[in-house]
Write a structure and sequence with these properties.
The chain is an all-alpha fold. Helix content is about 80%, strand content about 0%. The chain is elongated.
Length: about 80
């Protein structure tokens, strides 16, 4: 449970640091470029790097939460009562 809370807090802090400019846009663009190159999709324009970084963070949170929810649902079904 603590790990899930820590994960969400870290994602929130990362998102806020990107929006406020604590993390430089150049660094965000570089990291986003590595992710896009790994997957094989085109890099967004430099003006939209922050928005795409926030979309990646949000997507990661949704995927992790979905996996945890599915795991909890499956394990609760195997032990009725």
């Amino acid at each position: 449970m603590v790990t899930i809370v820590v994960f969400h807090v870290l994602m929130l802090v990362l998102g806020l640091s990107i929006v406020t400019g604590v993390v430089p846009a150049r660094l965000v663009g570089t990291m986003l470029g590595y992710a896009h190159n790994t997957i094989g999709i085109t890099m967004p324009p430099a003006k939209k790097v922050k928005m795409f970084a926030l979309i990646w963070i949000g997507s990661t949170v949704v995927i992790v939460d979905g996996c945890i929810s599915l795991l909890l649902f499956i394990t609760s079904m195997s032990h009725p009562g």
